[in-house]
Amino acid sequence: MSNETRKAFSDTYGHQGSVRTYFCPGRINLIGEHIDYNGGFVFPAALTLGITACISKREDGVVRFSSTTIPGTVEIRLNETLENKPSQHWANYPIGVLAFLQKEGYTLSGADVMFSSNLPDGAGVSSSAAIEVLTAFMFLAENGHPEPDRVWLSIFAQKVENQFIGVNCGIMDQFSVANGKAGQGILLNCNNLEFRYVPMNLGNYRLVILNTKKRRELADSKYNERRAECDEALAILNQTETFPDLCSATFDAVESLISDPVIRARATHVVAENQRVIEACKVLEAGNLERFGQLLNESHFSLRDLYAVTGKELDVITDAARLHPGCLGARMTGAGFGGCGIAIVDKESIPDFSRVVSETYEAACGWAPSVYVSEIGEGVRQLD
Fold it and tell me: What is the reported pLDDT for 114?
C-alpha cells in the first residue's frame, strides 16, 4: 500500500519532494466486550491492516490533507485557530491532533499529507484512533521532536477525540494502535492503564474479520442504555455489599441481590465476561486454542442473550462461522448492532470458510459481507 500512497501523493500534489511514509494499524478487541466502563479488562490487538500516510514538509505553515478514498483536499494554516468544522469532514481528526499538539507547546511546520487505508470501512476497527495516533506520531517525527512515550501518545489521542471531535470514547482504541506488538494481544486494565502482552501463538490458525456491512444505528443509544443499567446494578449491589465496580461483583451477589431480571442479566454478563478475559489469556499462554475458541463463542452468546447487543446480522455471520469445521470459535466485537465479528480459522480452510459464510450470510441478510484475514501486527511506526 506504501507505493500506491506515494503515487497518489505525487498525482495530487505534483511533486515527490522529500517524502516519508508512516503506518498505523487498526485494532480488534479479541475478548472483553462492554466491560471497559465497568472496571474490567480488555484484550485488544493491533492488526496488519491499517492507515498509511505519506508526508512532505512545507515551509509556509500550510497543511494539506488528502485521501485516496475520499475526493478533495482540505487545507489549513497552522498560524490560524484550528476548529472542528463540518466542511472539513474526516480531516477534523488530523486537524484536531495538530491543534492539540500546538496547545501542548510543540512547534510544527506545514506539510502535504496523503492518507490511504485498507481497513474495512465503518466496521468498528478504530480507523479514527489510527488516524489520530498516526498524525501525532508523524508530525512529531517530521518536526524533530523525540519519539513520544506510547502511553502518553494514547492518552493524547483520546483527549483529541473527546475534546476536539466530541466523542466520549474510552482509551482502548488509541492504546491498542499505539502499543501493538506483532503476534501479541494486550491485556489492558482501562482504569489504571496497567497492561501486559500475551503471545497469540495461533499456529496453523488465523484471525479472520467478518464485516457485516451493517451500519450500527442503534449502537450509541443502546450503549448509553447499557451503561445506565450497569450503574443501576452496581447501586443495587452496594446497598448491601461494597464493590468498587461491577466487574468486582460475585455471581452470588448478583443472583441474590438483583431482582429485576434485565438488570441481573446485564450484571451477569459483565462479571462473566471479565472472567473470560482472564481465562482467555491463561489458555493462550498454555497453547490451548480450542478453549480460546470456546471462550469466544461463550462471549458472543452472553452478549446476545444477557446483554442484548448483537442483532440479526452479527448472529447470522458468527453462527455460520461456528458451523464450519475449520473454525474454532467466533463472536461479535465492538459495540454491537452491526460492524464486525471475528473468528479463529484454520488457514487451509479459509477459502472455503469465506465462501460458505458469505453465501449463508447473503441468503439470510440480502447482501454480501466482507471477509478479511489479518495477522496481529505492530503499532504505529515509520516505514521509510
Answer: 97
The amino acid at 288: N
pTM: 0.93
Estimate to the nearest angstrom the gap between the alpha carbon of 105 and the chain centroid. Answer: 29
Backbone angles phi, psi at 21, to 5 degrees: -120, 135
| SS3 of residue 334 by DSSP | coil
Q: Which three cell numbers stand for residue 63?
A: 497543511
Task: Give the separation between CA 344 and CA 202, rounded to whole angstroms.
Answer: 8
Rounded distance between C-alpha atoms, residue 349 and residue 197, angstroms = 28
Residue-range domain boundaries for the chain: 2-200+378-382
- Give 185-195 pLDDT, tens digit per residue: 999 998 899 99
Residue 315 a catalytic site member: no
Q: Tens digits of per-residue pLDDT, 231-277?
A: 999 999 999 999 999 999 999 999 999 999 999 999 999 999 999 99
What is the architecture, at CATH level 2, of domain 2-200+378-382? 2-Layer Sandwich (3.30)
Please tell me which residue in 36, 112, 173, 346 is annotated as part of the active site: 173
Distance of CA 379 to the CA centre of its chain: 12
Distance CA 238, CA 246 (A): 10
Q: Which amino acid is it at 42?
A: V
Query: Which residue reads 503515487 in cell numbers?
Result: 7
Q: What's the confidence (pLDDT) of residue 126?
A: 74
